[in-house]
Amino acid sequence: MTAPRRAATAFLALGLGVLGTLSLLRLHDGPLGPLPGGALVRGVLSEEPKPHWEAAEIGDTIELEVRPAAPWSVTTWAVVLGGSLYVAADFLNPLKRWPYFVLGDPAVVVRAGGRRYRCTAVRVEDPALVADLRRAFARKYGLTPDGLAAHATVWFFRLEPKPAAQPTAS
Asked: How many whole angstroms separate alpha carbon 92 and alpha carbon 103?
């Protein structure tokens, strides 16, 4: 076998391996570290109309499922500010797709502390609130006020609890 043919075979095998891995991740319950996964399945589904996010065990990260028609889940940063839960979508990673999925369909599921919460993601565009959120994320994650993250394009979303579907009367 010639060197170019071996290289082409190795490249093809690598490509098939990557595609296979990505396909398997779509079947995984949630993200696997930094790699996106499928639907969030494990965890009690909370029916609280207004969760107390301060007590919801929001750690350094939460898991966020977007695009209900073809679930895609990611691990992302979150802060609680004024009793509401917010996530940041920074664009330092040019491959980040989930914020665009949220713009197409704002229905999301959050998993934190072993519980799942149905929410609606609402993009925050108020400049004063955006500035408060930048400071809150900087405090929580130890970001310097004048560092790279302070100048990155960031979208913030407030995750508003979505009431459980009520049974219809017949």
From this structure: 19
